[in-house]
Design a protein that fits this description.
The protein has seven helices and seven strands. It is elongated and about 90 Å long. It has two domains: 30 residues; 136 residues, Glutaredoxin (3-Layer(aba) Sandwich). With 181 residues, the chain is an alpha/beta fold.
């Protein structure tokens, strides 16, 4: 009899403990969701915050063009840094974000030979390509190039880091003559 009551108490304690743990995890996710999912959220919002590329290349301002994908881990890592650049320079520079999974941007993906992401291209106000960064970059390197966009002498630089994501072929978005994609 005592064994049954002890067993019942253990089961009740186990259920209570399990409910408490689940509650703590759920509450933590709710409270810290912005911190935990910040880079994913930023990456998803880039497309909405983007200046149209046709406007960017004709409005007489330098342009920061980033090719990214929402599944790209390196893109997610760099998203907070890129968002900081946008906040700091958006009055003086166009920020264009093109998702490589969107066939709408195929023309630009081909034009700028994008095969690894993130790829950041920096253009002066006349639309001349000044720098290309492929893969994970440190803040100082990109900031120097952004600050040099207004200088007279602008030799082209391509900086490739081994940490980048290779673009995945997405057959679901292939454009066919009748798809009007």
């Amino acid at each position: 009899m005592q064994s049954e009551s002890r067993e019942q108490i253990l089961k009740t304690n186990l259920k209570t403990t399990l409910i408490l743990i689940i509650s703590i995890v759920m509450l933590s996710l709710l409270l810290f969701k912005n911190f935990i999912f910040k880079s994913t959220y930023l990456l998803k919002s880039f497309g909405e915050l983007s200046v149209d590329p046709e406007i960017a290349f004709t409005n007489n301002k330098p342009t920061f063009l980033e090719f990214y994908a929402e599944w790209c881990e390196v893109c997610k890592e760099m998203a907070p840094q890129v968002a900081d650049f946008k906040d700091e320079y958006e009055k003086d520079i166009n920020f264009v974000f093109l998702n490589v999974d969107n066939q709408k941007w195929a023309k630009y993906i081909n034009k700028f030979a994008v095969n690894g992401i993130p790829q950041v291209n920096l253009f002066d106000k006349k639309g001349n390509l000044i720098s290309t960064f492929i893969g994970k970059q440190d803040e100082i390197t990109i900031r120097k190039s952004i600050n040099n966009l207004e200088s007279k002498e602008k030799p082209y630089k391509e900086i490739i880091n081994a940490e980048f994501s290779k673009i995945q072929k997405n057959k679901n978005n292939e454009v066919r003559p009748r798809s009007h994609g």
